[in-house]
Amino acid sequence: MKGKYKMSKYLHPLCTMREVDYPCIGVDFDGTLSQQISYQGPGVFGDPVAGAAQAMTYLQSLGYKVAIYTSRGPASYDFIRQYCMEHNIPFDYINENPHTTIFDPNDCNIVKPNFDLYIDDKAVRFNGNWKSIVNSIVDIKFPYWLKR
């Protein structure tokens, strides 16, 4: 990518933002980079998802920053770093994008990293049509770990 990349003009008004040389992608960990297994502790993960390492390598070669965005807490971060090193899964950050963060002191001090794209095994892409979103959710054949 050439030149400066200006992040979305639709960012939250409390977002601090700088022009950066890259866009940043938030990538879920469990079920996206590693196979989904039931939680067994901060350092226990499934096998790598086929193609994950190659995909993250390719995205970085295109100029993207890759941020692992996980619901696992800070006790898991060193284990995630080690897992990614052992399986040659490159990434730049865990649960942060240091170039843009939404922070609202009136909203329980919540900090939410802002990414240009999200990759997550549990996501439903919003298409602007709530009826089709609800229908797609109703039609989902849930994986074993999300039985309805």
State the major sheet: 4 strands, parallel
Strand order of the largest sheet: 4-3-2-7
Total domain units: 1
CATH class: Alpha Beta
Counting DSSP H or I runs of 4 or more residues, the number of helices is 3
Silhouette: globular
Count the E strands: 7
Fill in the CATH topology: Rossmann fold
Our estimate of the beta-strand percent is 15-25%
- Head-to-tail CA distance between termini: 43 Å
pLDDT average, as an integer?
Answer: 81
Plain-language structure description:
The termini are far apart. The protein is α/β, with parallel strands linked by helices. The chain is built from three helices and seven strands. Helix 2 (77-86) links the parallel strand 3 and strand 4. The protein has one domain (15-146): Rossmann fold.
